[in-house]
Amino acid sequence: MLDSPFPIARVRATYPALSDGYAYLDGAAGTQTPQSVIDAISAAYRTGIGNVGGAFPASHRSDAIVAAARAAVADLVGGHPDGVILGPNMTTLTYRLSRALVGPGDEVVLSRLDHDANVRPWTQTGATVRWADVDPVTGELPVEQYAELINERTKLVAVTAASNVLGTRPDVAAITELAHRAGALTYVDGVHATPHGPVDVRELGADFYATSAYKWSGPHIGAVVADPALLETVRTDKLASSVDTVPERFETGTAPFADLAGVTAAVDHLAAMATDPGQGTRRERLLASMAAAERHELELFGVLLAGLETMPHVTLYGKPARRTATVYFTVAGRTPRQVAEHLAGLAVNVWNGHNYAWELTAALGIRDSGSAVRAGLVHYNDRSDVDRLLEGVASLH
Fold first, then answer.
1. Does domain 8-33+290-394 have CATH number 3.30.870.10?
2. What whole-number distance in Å separates Cα of residue 219 and Cα of residue 353?
3. Residue 1: pLDDT above 60?
């Protein structure tokens, strides 16, 4: 095992799914769930819940669950609970907000580094699109180009906080500063970034920050975090009979209350991974715990990357200076799907294909040939997972 202060054995023991003997290196597409989250969801159903706003205890319990979930997400990313919009997933919420924020006649700046969920909703509004390009060799998103792309006509700049296939962490704060100087709003996709280290939406300069709980050990719930005062200025389509308060005006239909209980449990789990309950507020514990998890992931990733770099039959894509523990590669003489199937036969889970990095895989010139294989580390992965992947890829030579 690597010499790390992160209590990996204790953390792994909290995830029942890891007992099946597989190496779960597919976390970039969704993480496994700890027992505490499973218990929280089950308890919500066992106790009895009703729709919100009622006069009876089951409804009051749902009111409390929703409020707790907003507070938990706010603590995770450094936002305010009244600015946490909850929904089924990031894609749905982004489509909803894109229609409220921009339209024909507006100008938006998008990046080819992004997941398509932070691209297509904006291109389909009828707004004029200006593109920020990726360096296809390094996988970096150069900040300098934004000075030319952003102007007085720019309504919004959408950018990822981390690439979901290359792991690239662009200089989001520098990009959002340029946007704000021009009076533009910023929409930051934090889906891939949030599970891999501490997040502060204010430091990033994100007017809107999107995240998905199922990427950080929670259920399939999405959230967008913004300043409540900003949300008061935004109008979106809603039922005439539904409430018009913020953030509820952006949430359609009845919420999955039991899953929202799981969101709070997931945040509490993250806060407790590498800290003790008495070490400060939940926000403080989250910052410390996620920093420890990031160090653990990057130490393991150093081993993974070094191992793949020694294999002549492996081609790696991107070499960004700052990244999450995510690698994208191909193997000579094998399609990405064949590599994934070979590894699955060795009880190693990885993904193959474009993984919704539609613009990026086209820029890399690999989208039409099956793209590549993606392996990603999260906090519950250990050295044995890495070794098994390396052995499996080496055996394809």
1. no
2. 24
3. no
